[in-house]
């Protein structure tokens, strides 16, 4: 079993079949450098106190939760009152609907978790659901309560196990109109589209997450190591120490830029035959 502790234990249910499962976070905590705020004169970390205006610092046992229903007015709820709101989804994730594997817009996905059976006895039924989802190319949908919140969740096969993705509810997603309504729906020119499509095909390859590195986090870790070696002295980074990253040129001739990219990008800079900036500027909405 994994060394980490499960963040949720309960049942994965399909109709009358209930499988005891555990949930583990798929993302590693501590993978990126994290910083504390430090008081420079003493080198000690900054701490924050819970304070009330006109009262000052308060004890932890004096704090309860409140919902602001009007500006400055709160309805107060104790932990016992919140815990009394019993939800079936606290210990059960029931798959109530199935959708095509590609039907869910990526904007809805939030966090990923590994789902594993709790013991060998649960594994037989677990494998049945896993393989049925894979064979039908479906994703199971349900809800579960975790850490004081009810989540919409999608279950799909992943290797020999199952992956759970928490999803945003519809009301949590912004509408696209305010952002996209000013963008023209006019189709791209056929000759430009043909070259761009060929460029995409040329750069198409199987997905490999290991091919991409977080350059910023790597540079931060290197800075931290050098700072430790320097015994805290100030370090000045030089330009040649910066990681090499892809960079683009200002596009003057869109077709020439696309063709040059398709041919490897080693030719001379794009000419000025067809300015890509020749289109009139979009008028601001009144």
TrEMBL record:
This is Non-homologous end joining protein Ku. Residues 235-286 are annotated as: Disordered. Keywords: DNA damage, DNA recombination, DNA repair, DNA-binding. GO terms for molecular function: double-stranded DNA binding. Homodimer. Interacts with LigD. Belongs to the prokaryotic Ku family. It holds the Pfam family Ku. Residues 55-185 form the Ku domain. The gene is ku. SUPFAM superfamilies: SPOC domain-like. With LigD forms a non-homologous end joining (NHEJ) DNA repair enzyme, which repairs dsDNA breaks with reduced fidelity. Binds linear dsDNA with 5'- and 3'- overhangs but not closed circular dsDNA nor ssDNA. Recruits and stimulates the ligase activity of LigD. Residues 260-269 have a biased composition (Basic and acidic residues). The keyword Metal-binding does not apply. GO terms for biological process: DNA recombination; double-strand break repair via nonhomologous end joining.
